[in-house]
Amino acid sequence: MQRMKRFFISVLAAACLSFPAAAGIFSPGDGDIIFDVRAGINASNLYLSGPAARGLLGNRTVGFNVSGNVSFQLAEGFFVLTGLGVESKGSRSSKNPMHGVQVDYFPIYATLPLGVSFRPQYTYSTSGFFDIGIYAGYGIGGKWKEPSGLSFPYFGTAVENIAQRWDGGVRLGIGAFFGERFLAGVYYQQSVFNVANADTTSQYGKLFNNTISLQVGVIF
Q1: What is the pLDDT of residues 5-30, one digit of tens each?
Q2: So what's the architecture of 2-219 in CATH?
Q3: pTM (2 decimals)?
Q4: Cα→Cα distances 174→162, 195, 213, 215, 217, Å
């Protein structure tokens, strides 16, 4: 699993570094590179796959997302999209597997998306976008909290080290551009890596992030 994660991250980073050159080869000229800044809300779910964990995790929690993105045009209506963002994920649980009490999980990740974007023109001032790709994430903060107010860092906690920092998976999006300055869209992200530590996995199955994001943005 660790080798797969390192391979996944390496391919993602190498592809991102090669895209500026690829954009120049396929579609030279002005207007081929588009920058935007986006922000919005996340509805996230952190769940365990094992039968013993059913009902313990799985209630969505609301968080945030913010990112800077760049699109490289490969052909008319087709772009490659990447960027760098920060977003919260997590879950509200009815029962914590270790402590037997309700716990809110709120991890925060730095994320690097990579995808292909199809952008059909609908009217003179409006176009759509359909994005498909992958993402890599690295945990940079967050916490888990009990109803009593007791809380601990989500990553690297001696009391309960729930998850490892690396995350990665698939990413789908749909939305629209309004004029030359604004955009709005909805994204779906699903982990393909087990983000739990070994002790959690052995008892309750694999741990995955699942996120629906609503974003609005400004184009530069």
Answers
A1: 555 555 555 545 444 444 443 333 34
A2: Beta Barrel (2.40)
A3: 0.81
A4: 32, 26, 11, 10, 13
